[in-house]
Amino acid sequence: MLFLEKNGYQLLPLFISEATLQTLQSCSIALEGASPNIRKNVFCHSTSIKPIFKQIETSLKHKGLPCFMTDYCFYLSKSKQENWPLQFHQDINLPAYLQLDHSQKELWLNQGFWVRINLDFNDRQTGALKVIPQSHLKGKNSPFSKEEVVFLDANARDVILFSPLLYHGSDRMQQTAQRRVFQCFFQKSTFNSPQ
């Protein structure tokens, strides 16, 4: 996983099975009308999602990435009705329900990464994730150049790993489509799992 370390992101093509995709698509239907609080804490509202990320944890370990899953997982979607651009940003604000103190938050940001499961095909025209490679190496609130942007075209079943300190965002959809993802925060196993 040296590409992840160096560039701050990595695309894993077709990393989940078709059956797993169908399970997550069913879960997404149940979450479409849910409140933002529920979407931001899906493990508390669905028993089907957490085991899937545990399987991904095992797969990542087999690929040489020692890690463990945390309880921070959310669902987000874009559609014709919910079609918003997301400016470049870093994920430096962690939710209160995690009950982390300042030093724990810093550890999470520096040792953690997102595991993002794509439920639909997405490209530049349909709201794909865009990133600034290596921007995570400069730390929080660092300068970056939009000229270095990379759009991460993804198929359904693809998984994207990326650092919370990597500048990322997405454009408004230019054509009618769906963009549904489940995203869970993982920690590198440089210290003991709290689980």
Beta-strand percent range: 25-35%
Per CATH, the superfamily is q2cbj1_9rhob like domain
Order of helices and strands: HEHHHEEHEEEEEE
Q: Strand order within the widest sheet?
A: 1-7-4-9-2
The DSSP helix count reads 5
Radius of gyration: 16 Å
Compute the average pLDDT: 93
Structural class: alpha+beta
First-last Cα distance:
24 Å
CATH architectural group: Sandwich
In CATH, the topology is named: Jelly Rolls
TL;DR of this structure?
This protein has 195 residues and is an alpha+beta fold. It has helices at 2-7, 18-31, 36-39, 49-62, 102-111, and strands spanning 9-12, 67-78, 86-89, 112-118, 129-131, 150-151, 159-162, 168-170, 179-188.
Blueprint (SSEs and pairs):
Layout: H1 2-7, E1 9-12, H2 18-31, H3 36-39, H4 49-62, E2 67-78, E3 86-89, H5 102-111, E4 112-118, E5 129-131, E6 150-151, E7 159-162, E8 168-170, E9 179-188
Antiparallel strand pairs: 1-7, 2-9, 3-8, 4-7, 4-9, 5-6, 5-8
Explain this structure:
- The protein contains five helices and nine strands, in the order αβαααββαββββββ.
- The protein is of the alpha+beta class.
- The two termini are 24 Å apart.
- 33% of the residues are buried.
